[in-house]
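Postdoc handover notes: sequence design on the structure in folder B. Input tokens:
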């Protein structure tokens, strides 16, 4: 569980539109392929566009995601959004990892539109990531935006760098969690979150 305050990576300014396709074309050549053959002639552009999308979270501003979807509310029970699916790229091998998150918070006079929580998850997932930091960034961002009494995040993911290379384990998954405020300090709150999230393990 996360204890120290996580420093959330700042949004970067939009990079100059330098083409990625020439780099992919050179990579194909270095791997022994012929990027001029018919089946590969448009692959560099497609890969470039895909990478732009999969890393688009760098250009998203977390402070603009809530917009007007922060509401004053005298609601003091836990709010949980479960089974938020995500896809990301491991920063070590740039191979995909994917899974789901359960996110909960204990309001402190404010609530956030429910659709904004998956958007926050997507923003951080669409960056080069490690699962541990992704989990912490989501929790810390909700803490910063809402100032709730506490936040809990549980994440389970499967990593292609484990499945396709290295140890080649097809059915292994990784679990991470971040508990802030009351979710960390009060066992009853933490247990309620896990029960409401209906966490059973084995993300499919």
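Designed sequence:
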């Amino acid at each position: 569980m996360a204890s120290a305050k996580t420093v959330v990576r700042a949004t970067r300014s939009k990079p100059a539109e330098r083409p990625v396709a020439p780099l992919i074309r050179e990579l194909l050549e270095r791997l022994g392929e012929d990027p001029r053959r018919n089946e590969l002639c448009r692959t560099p552009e497609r890969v470039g566009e895909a990478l732009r999308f999969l890393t688009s979270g760098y250009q998203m501003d977390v402070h603009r995601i809530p917009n007007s979807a922060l509401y004053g509310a005298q609601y003091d029970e836990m709010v949980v959004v479960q089974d938020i699916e995500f896809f990301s790229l491991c920063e070590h091998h740039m191979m995909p990892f994917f899974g789901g998150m359960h996110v909960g918070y204990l309001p402190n006079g404010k609530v956030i539109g429910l659709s904004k929580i998956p958007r926050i998850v997507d923003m951080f997932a669409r960056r080069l990531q490690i699962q541990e930091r992704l989990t912490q960034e989501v929790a810390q961002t909700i803490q910063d935006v809402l100032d709730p009494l506490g936040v809990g995040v549980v994440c389970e993911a499967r990593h292609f760098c484990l499945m396709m290379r290295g140890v080649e384990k097809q059915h292994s998954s990784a679990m991470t969690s971040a508990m802030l405020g009351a979710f960390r300090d009060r066992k009853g709150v933490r247990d309620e979150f896990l029960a409401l999230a209906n966490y059973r393990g084995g993300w499919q």
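Context for whoever picks this up: Strands lie at 70-72, 79-90, 96-106, 110-112, 128-129, 150-159, 174-181. Don't rerun without checking with the PI first.
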